[in-house]
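Just curious: can you write a single protein's sequence together with how it folds?
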Amino acid sequence: MPIFEVHLVAGRHPPERLAELLRALSARYAEILESPVERVRGFVTAHPAAHVVAGGEVGVEAPYVTALVLRGRPVEQRHRLIAAFTDVVVDVLGAARASVRVRIEQVDPDEWGIARVPASAARATEIAARAAGSG
């Protein structure tokens, strides 16, 4: 299920840098979630400068990352994702650390499908083990 999306100002980064960002975020996501990288999905959404505002200033680069995880992941793991994703955005894009925002969104396993099957059924053993570890 690991999915992430990065929101950036369009035209600020060359395609090869965006590809590097996607690869690096995917690798860190897989490492931290202890999940095969083949499960990770990542996307860059580029917004026209006129459609981005941060601190009241239109067009300023303010990277925003959303990461989806199945509910039951330990808080420590989610916090590691926040730190790792911030570091990758800073290292790869040269963004100011203070400008980066990362949100972890937990999704109930019954509300997520993997190959037509709810994650609660497709990954029942893994989900149960994670839930037992976080309690």
The chain has a mean pLDDT of 91. Helices lie at 15-33, 75-93, 119-122, 124-134. The chain is about 40% helix and 25% strand.
